[in-house]
């Protein structure tokens, strides 16, 4: 509660930062957002550390100090983006008279953003549901899941870069009346994302044990024993994860936000969660893996099927006819 009360105070500026960076990306400027994030993270690390332990004349604040550092960093990021837009970047300039409501633009923003909002809420709700099922497996399984997710997140965060490129170029080429170039750019970003995550998947399979040891040291063998097989299984599905993330970005850049939302709903509610209920037990049917590995088997199936659905949605090409 203390952490939330402090960080929520920065939400307006955090929203300004997030939306401003998205606007700049859409205009083709991905560098400004990158440098703002570098500054934000440096401030976050330094202030959170100093305020948490009481260095450089600051009182020892513990967790509240971590929250303070986060809030200050997010506020600075929002201010920097607003200043950059006020000065003008990538053909975009923020002016106060632009704050007057334009009902035509507002309705178009809501039409496109509502499915994207639905996708985010669905992801959040279903991830919490999935985690609740894993928590029932016990503390060791929960710890193993947490470490494996952090290792797998390295790949996810990497491929977001290709998603941004696919989204930006797809939108720009469609706006220029060149759907052929939009398709070519999206497919190239897709191929690059799949290639990079294929290599990362191989590295996760080969070095899963050392990665767990980095997080845990040598004193918790039960955690690694459960987590390593699960991580290696999902590492094999990383090319499909690249398909979900990159082509999802391309579809959103074209204005097709309903397709990715539908894929998320189908993947979680028809594949991952039902299979988790079936497999995340000590003795699952048909000799299938159980426990944490059973839950991650459900995740593996979800990622593969969602990757196929996203590829079908993109390759059908209806996104090229959307008018925004």
Structure in words:
This protein has 324 residues and is mainly α. The protein is 79% helix and 0% strand. The protein is built from 12 helices and no strands. Helix 11 (258-279) runs antiparallel to helix 12 (291-316). The relative contact order is 0.10. The mean pLDDT is 91.
Task: Give me some keywords for this one.
324 residues; mainly alpha; globular
How would you describe the shape?
A: globular
Taken as a percent bin, the fraction of beta residues is under 5%
The total of beta strands comes to 0
Q: What's the main sheet like?
A: none
Average pLDDT figure: 91
Spatial gap, N to C terminus? 41 Å
The secondary-structure element order is: HHHHHHHHHHHH
Unreliable stretches covering 5 or more consecutive residues: none
The helix tally amounts to 12
Percent helix: over 70%
Structural class: mainly alpha
User: How large, in whole angstroms, is the Cα Rg?
Assistant: 22 Å
Task: Tell me briefly what this model is.
The chain is about 80% helix and about 0% strand.
Present the secondary structure layout:
Elements lengths: L1 H6 L3 H16 L4 H23 L9 H25 L15 H33 L3 H37 L3 H28 L1 H9 L4 H15 L2 H16 L4 H22 L11 H26 L8
Helix pairs in contact: 2-4, 3-4, 5-11, 6-7, 6-9, 6-10, 7-9, 7-10, 8-9, 9-12, 10-12, 11-12
